[in-house]
Amino acid sequence: MVSSVNKDVHELPDKMNIETDAVIVNQLVGTKGESKDETFEAGTKMIRAFIRCEKGVGLSRNTALSKADSELIHFGDDDIIYDKGYSDKIVKEFDDHPEADMILFNVKAQEGRETYWNVDFAPVTWKNYGRYPAYAIAARREKLLESGVKYSLLFGGGAPYMNGEDSLFLHDCLKAGLKIYRTTVALGHEEAGKSTWFKGYTDKFFYDRGVLYAFLYGSLADILGFRFLFKYRKEMCAEKGLFKCFRLLSDGIGKGRELKKAK
């Protein structure tokens, strides 16, 4: 299930080395076009593409999930290049681990954007779920649908608040009781390019991080938020200072708590 923005859906299957049937949701942002649905063949693969005049990565992933019909599903981005045989690796890993509702695979991120690399097969818990991007995630579709978990429309590219949508998604999956595991199996790599959301350590960066922490950590958001800033203070807070950054983050936490109450 590929989320893309302003891409040619006919080129993506070959560019990404997609080996299976696929659902592509391509959002048209800042460009002319109209919403439409397409179905076409790419070699032996059947591709269903949904072009939408809208924005928001959470909305894109939810649309893809609603259109998928396979037993196993895998979230993807348009800048992921898959290795030959990756699809068989996913199937084998789920066959070998029937206890897993969801498995987080290795995908090599571009240099400077690495957040994780699995070195063992182990459960994903409340202690370590926050490091994984969407393109690591594969799941048993029925289990995910039964859980009722969907991507938040508040966070991520094209949403009101910056990144964090993947962490919140996995948070909600754990809360719903899904059994999540990590694996050393690698599927491919991320194509080099600029971040679509990170514009430096701006006021919005800290405020939005506070909104996210309210959703992830509840009453512990302030404590864990300060710990996060203190740990990375030399990098993140060099310009503004630790306490100004914390005030911005705290304001965001307050907004996040308001949003949670309104849900």
TrEMBL record:
Segments crossing the lipid bilayer: 211-230
Keyword Transmembrane helix part of the UniProt annotation: yes
Keywords of the record: Membrane, Transferase, Transmembrane, Transmembrane helix
Superkingdom, natural source: Bacteria
Positions of the Glycosyltransferase 2-like domain: 51-128
Listed GO MF terms: transferase activity
Stated name of the protein: Glycosyl transferase family 2
Organism whose genome encodes this protein: Butyrivibrio hungatei
